[in-house]
Amino acid sequence: MAALGVAGSVQARPLMPLHDKPREMLSPPFVDGQGRDLTLADFRGRVVLLNLWATWCVPCREEMPTLDGLQEKLGGDDFHVLPLSIDRAGMKVVRRFYEEIGIRHLGMYLADSTRAMLAFGALGLPTTILIDRDGFERGRLVGPAEWDSPEVMAQIQTIINERSE
């Protein structure tokens, strides 16, 4: 993963750039904390904030509490934060990291790093993708953000408030 870029500070990040029109997405298989096989199709009907991350990625580690805060504030039947780890050491390092920093509201998900990076077109970590209820990519941000800030939550809420035709 030598080509994998790691982006800068959480504080200096803009809102997520949204696309002019929704984009189709691929979904590699991944597993949850209970070992169940999933794809993005399992989340249809909800807006999803997919965050590709790893425990060894410093900016990823720094933004994880803000993703936890976002899930606590907006998570439910209409919205889900999906932190998809690409750690090759497996779920045990993810579980240990969650315990170390006190993550309480996020689920654990793990994918093969190469398959996930290729399928999602991710060039660096963290990469976060906003997915609408129909499974289309609506926006993308490479680099960390303060996900539980009022501005970001308002932006995500506008996508949550849209209804499928």
Low-confidence stretches: 1-13
Decide which structural class fits the backbone.
alpha/beta
Task: Please name the CATH architecture.
Answer: 3-Layer(aba) Sandwich
SSE sequence, one letter per element: EEEEEHEHEHEEEH
CATH hierarchy, class: Alpha Beta
Largest sheet: 8 strands, mixed
According to CATH, the fold-level topology is Glutaredoxin
Strand content: 25-35%
Q: What is the name of the CATH superfamily?
A: Glutaredoxin
Tally of DSSP helical segments: 4
The pLDDT mean sits at 90
| Global morphology | globular
- Whole-angstrom Rg: 14 Å
The beta-strand count equals: 10
| Order of strands, widest sheet | 2-10-9-5-6-7-3-4
End-to-end distance: 41 Å
Total discrete domains: 1
DSSP helix fraction: 25-40%
Keywords: Cytochrome c-type biogenesis, Disulfide bond, Redox-active center
Main location: other
Subcellular location: Cell envelope
GO molecular function, one term: disulfide oxidoreductase activity
Question: How are the secondary structure elements laid out?
Answer:
Elements: E1 5-6, E2 18-23, E3 30-32, E4 37-38, E5 47-53, H1 58-74, E6 79-85, H2 91-101, E7 109-110, H3 113-119, E8 124-125, E9 127-131, E10 137-142, H4 150-161
Parallel strand pairs: 1-8, 5-6, 6-7
Antiparallel strand pairs: 2-10, 3-4, 3-7, 5-9, 9-10
